[in-house]
């Protein structure tokens, strides 16, 4: 899927981008201006390509992201503040600018990870539902739906086919019950891992609801 492929490309490109910044900053901090100029010259074309890929993949991913929250906006602010700071820092040999720029890039990466971890946190039910399986009017699928709406709908949507943040269409999914449980627990690409967040009954309810989306 395009989103998932671009997500992994983006991560890799960001890593390269940060590595170039880091090398330049180290050269600047150690007073090796000659080395910095040399490295800047050598890396010039690759850096243009990497920067373009960074912004293009990032731009595409932003449009399809499931949760555009404050944390994510802060991440964008960090990224877009770091670029001019780095350009000025390396060109005018301003150490402080370069260091702040590196911290902003690392901070942006950290914010993205926190954003992901937050998606995988246990969220409260959005509706009232009977969660006690021994209760007389307990319905497994309603329990599953409540869990799904709280936890999964943000990416997979109401009917399982929203496809936000690269989420696969659950209506077309052919995964077995065991495979569904595995992906819920361990996550995959942008899907956060949720291992240990659901007890056996909740897992049963979730898996049942996910499968029920296929019939629709
Ligand atoms: C942050 C977005 C996000 C959230 C939240 C999320 N998913 Fe996903 N889900 C994905 C992505 C992305 C994939 C595709 C992973 C891949 O194959 O690369 C996926 C794939 C799946 C698949 C596999 C489908 C297939 O046929 O390959 C299942 C099943 C699934 N998710 C169920 C759930 C359930 C249940 C929840 C809630 C407990 C959930 N997801 C929460 C993004 C999300």
What attributes characterize this protein structure?
single chain; 216 residues; Cytochrome Bc1 Complex, Chain D, domain 2; 2 domains; elongated; binds heme C
Structural commentary:
By secondary structure, the protein is an all-alpha fold. The chain folds into 2 domains: about 1-120; about 140-210, Orthogonal Bundle (Cytochrome Bc1 Complex, Chain D, domain 2), CATH 1.10.760. Helices cover about 70% and strands about 0% of the residues. The protein is built from 8 helices and no strands. The protein binds heme C.
Oligomer: single chain
Q: Outline the biggest β-sheet.
A: none
Please tell me how large the radius of gyration is. 22 Å
Distinct small molecules: heme C
Q: In DSSP terms, counting alpha (H) and pi (I) runs of 4 or more, how many helices?
A: 8
Question: In total, how many beta strands?
Answer: 0
Tell the overall outline: elongated
What is the element string, with H for helices and E for strands?
HHHHHHHH
Mean pLDDT across all amino acids: 94
CA-CA gap between termini: 23 Å
Q: What structural class is derived from the secondary structure elements?
A: mainly alpha
- The portion of residues assigned to helices is 55-70%
């Amino acid at each position: 899927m395009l989103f998932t492929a671009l997500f992994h490309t983006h991560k890799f490109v960001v890593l390269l981008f940060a590595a170039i910044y880091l090398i330049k900053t180290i050269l600047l901090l150690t007073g090796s201006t000659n080395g910095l100029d040399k490295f800047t010259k050598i890396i010039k074309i690759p850096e243009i390509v990497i920067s373009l890929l960074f912004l293009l993949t990032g731009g595409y991913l932003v449009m399809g992201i499931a949760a555009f929250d404050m944390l994510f906006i802060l991440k964008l602010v960090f990224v877009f503040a770091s670029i001019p700071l780095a350009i000025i820092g390396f060109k005018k040999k301003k150490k402080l600018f370069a260091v702040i720029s590196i911290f902003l890039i690392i901070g942006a990466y950290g914010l993205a990870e926190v954003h992901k971890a937050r998606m995988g946190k246990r969220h409260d039910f959005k509706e009232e539902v009977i969660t006690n399986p021994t209760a007389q009017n307990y319905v497994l699928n309603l329990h599953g739906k409540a869990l799904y709406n709280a936890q999964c709908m943000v990416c997979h949507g109401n009917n399982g086919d929203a496809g936000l943040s690269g989420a696969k269409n659950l209506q077309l999914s052919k995964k077995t019950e065991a495979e569904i449980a595995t992906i819920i627990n361990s996550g995959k690409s942008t899907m956060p891992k949720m291992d240990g967040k659901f007890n056996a009954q909740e897992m049963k309810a979730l898996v049942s609801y996910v499968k029920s989306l296929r019939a629709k």
